[in-house]
Amino acid sequence: MNRIQEGKKRNSTFELLRIAAMFLIIGFHIWNSAIRPPLDRIMREGELFNSPMFYSKLLVPEVLAGFGSIGNNLFILISGFFMAASGKKFRLGGKIGELLKQLGFAVVLMLLVSAAFVRFRPDLNVQTVVVSDFNEEYWFLGYYIAIIVLADLFLNRFLETLSRDSYRTFLLVLFAAISIGWIDKMIIELSYRLHELAAGVFFFCLGGYLRKYEPFRNVRAFVLTLTILACYGLAFFSYRTQTLSLIQADPSTPFLQIIPSYSTNSILIILISVAGFERFRRLRVPDSRAINFLGKGVFMVYAVHENRLVWNLWSKTDWVRLLYDRPGVFCLRFILCILCTFGICILAYVLYLGFIKACGGLKRCVLRGDAEAGSP
User: Fold this and answer.
1) Nearest one of 15, 42, 66 to 262, comparing CA atoms
2) pLDDT tens-digit map of 345-361
3) Where does residue 240 rank: exposed (0-12), middle (13-18), buried (19+ CB within 10 A)?
4) Which of 112, 129, 190, 265 has its CA 20 to 30 A from that of 218?
5) Residues 6+ away with beta carbon under 8 Å from 29
6) CA-to-CA distance for 44 and 22, rounded, in angstroms?
7) How far apart are CA 300 and CA 346, in angstroms?
8) Terminal-residue alpha carbon distance, the chain
C-alpha cells in the first residue's frame, strides 16, 4: 500500500487502481463490522429474511463478502508488478519506516478522537482506540512487511534466475499449495499465518510475472470484463442452488440463507483479482497530481479506519432494515459511506504530512549538528 516507484514518477493508472482497491477494502470492513453481525443475529432470531425462500436482496452482501480479499490481492499484485523480479533494489528500511510512522500517527490520532467522543458525545457509547492497537491490530501491515522482507532477502534474486517456463511452474506450485484442499489444509494445520503468507507470496510473484512476460497481452479487454462477470454469475448460481437445497431440507430445521465467505485463495477471487488487475491497467489514465496524491495516501486511509471506533460508528446505521426495506437506498448510502470514510482519512493524511514537516523543523532545534556534537 506504500510507494512502489522509488525515484520515478508515479503512474496515475496504478494509483487509481490503489484507490479502487482501498474502496473495496473499506466496503468489506463496513460489511464485516457493521452489517454482517446484526444480519446474522436478525436472521437467527427470525426477525427478517427468515421465510423459506431465496432472497435476491441478499445477493448484495454476497458481493460485498468478497471485496476485502479482492482488494488485498490487488495491493499485493501491484507491489509484485513493480518489485518482483525487477532486477532493481528497493529501499526496504525506508518503506517499512514510512509505514510504521504513518501507523503510529494514525493510532495516536484515533486515540485523541476516541477521547473526544468519550468527553463530548458519551451518548454514542463508542468503542475506543487504545495505544496497544499499534501492536495488536492492523494485520495487513505485518502481512505486507513479511512479503517484502522475503522479497528483499532472497525471493527476488530467486525469481530473476528463472526462465519463463520455470517461473510459470513455480507459480503453479504456489497456486496448488494455497488452493488444493489437502495441501492447503496441511499448511493451515502447520500454521494459519503461514498459509496467508504463502497466498501473499503467490500474488507478489504473479505480479512480477504479469509485468515481465505479459501473458494476457493478446487477450481482448472485453474478455477480461466477461471473466469478472462470469465469476460473479457462477457465485450467484452456486449461492442460489445452495439456498434452494436448504429450503428443501428438513422443514423442522430453522431456515437460514447463509452468506458465504471468500478467502484470498478462493478460485473465484483469484480470477476476479487477476482479470480486474489486467483490465484496469489497460486504462489510459492521464497523469493527475490529484490521483497520485490520493493513491499515495491509501495506507493512511487503511490505518485510520481499521479500528473499533470507526467500526462502531458505522454500526449506528440500521443497515439490515435498510437492505430489507429499500435495497436501492442501502446501496447509495453504502457507497456514500465509503466515499466519506475515504475523504476523512485523506484529511488525516494531510495532517500527517503537516506533522512530518513540522517535525523536520523541530529536529533542527532538538538535535545538535555534527560540529556541535563534537563540542562539550
Assistant:
1) 66
2) 999 999 999 999 888 76
3) middle
4) 265
5) 68, 305, 306, 311, 314
6) 32
7) 7
8) 45
For residue 326, pLDDT beyond 60? yes
Q: Which three cell numbers stand for residue 186?
A: 496441511
For residue 272, the SS3 value is helix
Cα–Cα distance between 361 and 244 in angstroms, integer?
A: 65
CA dihedral 248, 249, 254, 255 (to 10 degrees): -40
**In 10 A of CB 197, how many CB atoms?**
18
Tell me the Cα Rg of the chain.
Answer: 23
pTM of the model: 0.90
Amino acid at 364: R
Helix (H) or strand (E) holding 285: none
The pLDDT tens digits for 42-67 are 888 877 887 778 888 888 999 999 99
What CA–CA distance (Å, rounded) separates 363 from 376?
20
Distance CA 330, CA 324 (A): 9
**Structure confidence by residue, pLDDT tens digits, 99-150:** 999 999 999 999 999 999 999 988 888 888 888 888 888 899 999 999 999 9
E strands, 174-307, where?
A: none
Residue 263, judged by CB atoms within 10 A of its CB (0-12, 13-18, 19+), counts as middle
**Hey, what amino acid is at 143?**
Y
Contact criterion met (CB below 8 Å) for 295 and 230? no
Alpha carbons 203 and 169: distance in angstroms, whole number: 14
Burial of 149 (0-12, 13-18, 19+ CB in 10 A): middle
List C-alpha distances in Å: 95 to 137, 215, 281, 319, 372. Answer: 19, 29, 24, 38, 31
**Which cell numbers hold the place of 360?**
523536520
Cα dist from 220 to 215, 275, 313, whole Å: 12, 11, 43
Q: How far is it, in rounded angstroms, from Cα 231 to Cα 276? A: 11
